[in-house]
């Protein structure tokens, strides 16, 4: 085996260790390796006993009988997420840990935000003979609710993860476990208000379900706390002028708000927030001396310079709770009432707001 094949197969093993059971096609997409090459490498790794193949998915071999004696009893759970590599890695890790503890196996499917092919990915998971589903659909605020009708036709129990269906829609009758993002924004606003800021601006995208929840939480929070509202600063602007990147555009908007007397900002999400301090510094503004900054998500916030105070949704606990709820439903001898569970985020205080 060539050194390049060695390196490629090592990357495959590393990804499977991180993700648990994953479909081969999604593994190929994650690693940016042709699917035919991944299948060949997976076959070699399976022959060597380093991977286990089943129904188009791969996983690490069972470590022993203890992995199959929990309440999951060889249940296979399909999990649909819109992305890996950031926020949902922790949600997946929580679900995977709970599955392992229960003796169940997790099979991962990825429907990228841009693809909008939730149902096609769910159909592929169902072809893997899963017993139940953990679903994070690609829902946008402006989507036609009728596009979600397929949730009412699922042949196996399902739990929505970090999503909540519209009242009266077929998905509204499904179990749901997620973070209370509105409460998370309120925590950030309260902290900045306690530091003396009478106006706090929100910088956020507008093209994801979570961003919509954060925006709604901002509108509710400033009203509840009696703060002066400010129009949301868009962090993603199609056709950004003069060749600016989204981050440069956002930094210009924040600098303009500072000129209007605003000194405190909440930024959704970490990937956008972590790029702002150096860009603001170029514009003569320092965090936290001139600008107080709170990030939303807490995936990378602690790695910023300076480390960012951040709203931290309970990502791992969401994944674990959703998996455990699904297994309880699968094992129930009598009908269970539906569960809509919202878990509260925390505020992780670091140095980007000043004060204490």
TrEMBL record:
Taxonomy, superkingdom: Bacteria
Which SUPFAM superfamilies does this UniProt record tie to the protein?
A: Periplasmic binding protein-like I, Winged helix' DNA-binding domain
Q: Where is the HTH deoR-type domain?
A: 5-60
Q: Name one Pfam family in it.
A: HTH_DeoR
Which keywords describe this protein according to UniProt? DNA-binding, Transcription, Transcription regulation
Q: Which PANTHER family match?
A: ALANINE RACEMASE, LACI-RELATED TRANSCRIPTIONAL REPRESSOR
- What's the name of the protein? Substrate-binding domain-containing protein
The organism is: Kitasatospora terrestris
């Amino acid at each position: 085996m060539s050194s390049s094949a060695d390196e490629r197969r090592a990357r495959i093993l590393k990804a499977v260790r991180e993700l648990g059971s994953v479909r081969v096609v999604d593994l190929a997409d994650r690693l940016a390796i042709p699917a035919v090459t991944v299948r060949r490498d997976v076959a070699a790794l399976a022959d060597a006993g380093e991977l286990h193949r089943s129904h188009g998915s791969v996983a690490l071999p069972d470590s022993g009988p203890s992995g199959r004696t929990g309440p999951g009893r060889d249940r296979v759970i399909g999990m649909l997420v819109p992305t890996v590599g950031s926020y949902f890695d922790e949600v997946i890790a929580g679900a995977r840990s709970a599955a392992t503890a229960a003796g169940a196996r997790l099979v991962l499917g990825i429907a990228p935000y841009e693809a909008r092919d939730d149902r096609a990915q769910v159909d592929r998971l169902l072809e893997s003979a899963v017993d139940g589903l953990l679903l994070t659909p690609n829902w946008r605020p402006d989507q036609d609710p009728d596009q979600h009708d397929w949730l009412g036709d699922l042949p196996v129990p399902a739990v929505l993860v970090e999503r909540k269906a519209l009242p009266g829609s077929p998905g509204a009758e499904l179990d749901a476990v997620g973070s209370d993002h509105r409460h998370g924004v309120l925590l950030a606003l309260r902290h900045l208000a306690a530091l003396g800021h009478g106006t706090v601006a929100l910088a956020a995208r507008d093209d994801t379900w979570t961003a919509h929840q954060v925006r709604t939480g901002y509108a509710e929070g400033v009203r509840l706390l009696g703060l002066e509202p400010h129009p949301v600063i868009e962090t993603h602007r199609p056709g950004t002028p003069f060749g600016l990147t989204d981050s440069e555009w956002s930094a210009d908007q924040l600098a303009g708000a500072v000129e209007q007397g605003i000194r405190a900002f909440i930024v959704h999400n970490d990937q956008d927030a972590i790029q702002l301090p150096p860009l603001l510094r170029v514009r003569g503004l320092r965090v936290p001396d001139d600008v107080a900054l709170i990030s939303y998500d807490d995936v990378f916030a602690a790695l910023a310079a300076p480390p960012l105070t951040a709203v931290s949704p309970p990502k791992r606990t969401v994944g674990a709770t959703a998996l455990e709820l699904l297994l309880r439903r699968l094992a129930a001898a009598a009908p269970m009432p539906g569960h809509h569970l919202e878990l509260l985020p925390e505020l992780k205080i670091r140095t980007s707001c000043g004060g204490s």
